[in-house]
């Protein structure tokens, strides 16, 4: 098989990503159509980058006593399908055919419970702060692969599916990177992220 034709997926796992399975996932409801990508931001502790704390949180291995902030989230069991570091490194925690625990109470495109039919992607960053070019490049590649693998019709931020409760990725995220990459694809972005 030619290098360009290597399979990118195996049982919902994206082969170019670093695989670190999380126990925090479940079955998607029968008949769920995975048509939404949700972009998040996360850093642990908030505003600190480069450690392994996000990976430890998603795999239930975070040392709750390692930082005072961690007491505020003590016992939290969450996950995302993917995480992109400031350097553009891509991690995967949950197979895309499984339901990750990233959206919480949410509503979008006329449906509640966005965990049921979405893919969650966390960017290492802080709400309102900017993101790195390496992250946008990795995010664009990943979204393109997801569009080829799932019937993606929508891309939104956590702030769009849980307004008033969540604010990420926030005003520092430049939606033009994704809009331009998927121009003419028919994929719908939040109204505020659409071209003027």
TrEMBL record:
<keyword id="KW-0963">Cytoplasm</keyword>
<protein>
    <recommendedName>
        <fullName>1,6-anhydro-N-acetylmuramyl-L-alanine amidase AmpD</fullName>
        <ecNumber>3.5.1.28</ecNumber>
    </recommendedName>
</protein>
<keyword id="KW-0479">Metal-binding</keyword>
<dbReference type="InterPro" id="IPR036505">
    <property type="entry name" value="Amidase/PGRP_sf"/>
</dbReference>
<dbReference type="GO" id="GO:0008745">
    <property type="term" value="F:N-acetylmuramoyl-L-alanine amidase activity"/>
</dbReference>
<dbReference type="Pfam" id="PF01510">
    <property type="entry name" value="Amidase_2"/>
</dbReference>
<dbReference type="InterPro" id="IPR002502">
    <property type="entry name" value="Amidase_domain"/>
</dbReference>
<keyword id="KW-0862">Zinc</keyword>
<keyword id="KW-0378">Hydrolase</keyword>
<feature type="domain" description="N-acetylmuramoyl-L-alanine amidase">
    <location>
        <begin position="22"/>
        <end position="170"/>
    </location>
</feature>
<comment type="similarity">
    <text>Belongs to the N-acetylmuramoyl-L-alanine amidase 2 family.</text>
</comment>
<keyword id="KW-0961">Cell wall biogenesis/degradation</keyword>
<dbReference type="InterPro" id="IPR051206">
    <property type="entry name" value="NAMLAA_amidase_2"/>
</dbReference>
């Amino acid at each position: 098989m030619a290098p360009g034709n290597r399979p990118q997926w195996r049982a919902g796992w994206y082969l170019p990503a670093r695989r670190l399975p999380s126990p925090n996932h479940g079955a998607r409801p029968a008949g769920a159509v995975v048509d939404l990508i949700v972009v998040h931001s996360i850093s642990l502790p908030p505003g600190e980058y480069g450690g392994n704390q996000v990976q430890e949180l998603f795999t239930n291995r975070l040392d709750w006593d390692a930082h005072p902030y961690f007491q505020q989230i003590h016992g939290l069991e969450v996950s995302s399908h993917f995480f992109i570091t400031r350097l553009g490194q891509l991690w995967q925690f949950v197979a895309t055919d499984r339901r990750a625990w990233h959206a919480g109470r949410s509503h979008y495109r006329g449906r509640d419970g966005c965990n049921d039919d979405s893919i969650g992607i966390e960017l290492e960053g802080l709400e309102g702060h900017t993101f790195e070019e390496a992250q946008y490049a990795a995010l664009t590649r990943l979204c393109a692969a997801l569009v080829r693998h799932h019937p993606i019709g929508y891309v939104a931020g956590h702030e769009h599916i849980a307004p008033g409760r969540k604010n990420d990725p926030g005003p520092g995220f430049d939606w033009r990177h994704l809009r331009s990459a998927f121009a003419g694809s028919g994929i719908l972005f939040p109204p505020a992220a659409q071209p003027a």
